[in-house]
Amino acid sequence: MKSNRKVRRFWKFFAGLAACAVVSCFLTTPPACGQATSGPVRITLDEAIQMALQHNHNIIAARTAIDQSLDLEITANLRPNPTLVGDWEYLPFFSPSNLTGSYLSNQTEIDAGISYLIERGHKRQARYQNAKDLTAQTRSLVADDERGLTFQVASLFVNVQLAESTIDLAQQDLKSFQQTVDISEHQFQAGGISENDYLMIEVQLLQFETDLESAEMARAQGLSDLRQQLGYESVSADYDVVSAFDYLPMKGNLEDFQMQALQNRPDLRAAVQGVTAANSGFVLAKADGKPDVTVQANYTRSGGINAMSLFASIPLQIFNRNQGEIARTRSVISQMQEQQAYTNGQVLTDVKDAFEGAKSNERIVLLYQNKYREVAKKSRDIADYAYHRGGIALLDFLDAERTYRAAELGYRQTLATYLLALEQLREAVGVRNLP
């Protein structure tokens, strides 16, 4: 009987453990219950840009400049603090015997007062306005930093796409040429080709293997560099990119792009705001040239008599009228206006250069797509067919193979250059969505 009770207790204990395990399986994440994991994170270009804008440490640090400028606005808008003054005169420190209540009441003097600086010329309003103008300019400068970061991320993203496309090409070429090597080995063993021809074909295989290794290294380095811009901790080490590496026709004309850039470029907006801030700085300098008034009210008790005194003081502007700072800020206005004019021209130049570069690369991409890729492939296929049937020499076959590989690699590199040119045009215009 005792043995049966022990058995029943054991099974109850086992059932309890099983129930806990089932509940735990439901409460834990899917991989803990034996379900398949989702695999490495794959991000699109738009997702990469958003991750970089949120997690890139340099851009986060740059944004603190906005907070610092807002803090300076608070300081600029503060009023002067009043000053509390007081004194107790004629205390008998050197005649302690006179230290009596009657002496302190009738022979000493007590003064207590408060003074306040009255700012003239609307100084506080001028300081505050100048601080706000500088904050607006700071926001635009940070937005320009974000524009530059977006271009860096897009460029690195395209480089990774190029590397992965090159890997795909190298794998196809390696697989295709491996078949040629296998066929040539049978032909050599059967006496169909010479040993020298077979060795030349086998050595050629090294180039395909080297191309694959170089492409894989470029992809690994590209992903590493891109991860640094995304924010190193924001993605796992085994992440990957996912986007179509295809030709996208460019629409729109130069004039429209330039007009868009003049409206959207944050560096041009910052230059315009720099002129505004310089003007408010000039207004502040003139306000600082106005003398301030200090007023003070004192209570005095002397000889048992209570009295009130009022004071006021103002500097005489005989020598210092802040004329140097007024002249300097006037020169700053001219400086900012010249920089605005230069930036305006730079924006138009950037758009034109990017537009012409994109158009030129687009024409080359279309040459590959519409003609030369097909010509190179057809030439390679003909040479392959003819060589294996004794119609052409080995060197001619290898030359056709190299020409095809160079054409395909050239097309991918040209496509990447074109996509980078589009990204440069987006950066020059200041918007992601082009017509």
Description:
The protein is α+β, with helices and mostly antiparallel strands and 435 residues long. It contains ten helices and six strands. The protein has helices at residues 2-27, 45-55, 57-76, 101-106, 123-189, 195-230, 254-264, 266-288, 323-387, 394-429, and strands at residues 42-43, 83-89, 109-118, 240-241, 293-302, 305-313. The strands form two sheets. It has a four-stranded antiparallel β-sheet. A hairpin with a 2-residue loop joins strand 5 (293-302) and strand 6 (305-313). Helix 3 runs antiparallel to helix 5 (123-189). Residues 1-7 and 17-37 have low confidence and may be disordered.
| Computed structural class | alpha+beta
Roughly what percent helix? 55-70%
Mean of pLDDT = 86
Number of E-type strands: 6
User: How far apart, in Å, are the first and last alpha carbons?
Assistant: 88 Å
Spatial arrangement of strands, main beta sheet? 2-3-5-6
Uncertain spans? 1-7, 17-37
* % residues in beta strands: 5-15%
| Oligomer kind | single chain
The helix tally amounts to 10
- Helix and strand element order: HEHHEHEHHEHHEEHH
What is the gyration radius calculated from CA atoms? 40 Å
